[in-house]
Amino acid sequence: MKTKIKMGIDVLMTALLLCLMAYQITGQALHEWFGAGMLALFIAHNILNIRWYGNLFKGKYRLLRIIQTTFNFSVLISMLCLGYSGIVMSRYVFAALPISGPMATARRMHMAASY
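Now predict its structure.
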């Protein structure tokens, strides 16, 4: 059952990624909702795969494991930057929250992390 939930989350994240890349078609409001959904699914994905973090310091690190771990942490950092900058720039989904920050910096961070 847990494996099916994990796979479902991964499929939904893939679909949302495609929707997020269609910003010119969907517009800002939908882009924000898709992004909020992606952030929620990403958090759920990490919670369901929490054992991966516990095994980081176990076993030998050969080249493939080093590459995979580096890639995974790069994705983690990118997603955290996207989530933070998206919340700061939000005009619809998180607009009611008392969160503010430098918009120009948040936009640069969002664009760099998305690429």
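The CA atoms of residues 5 and 87 lie 27 Å apart.
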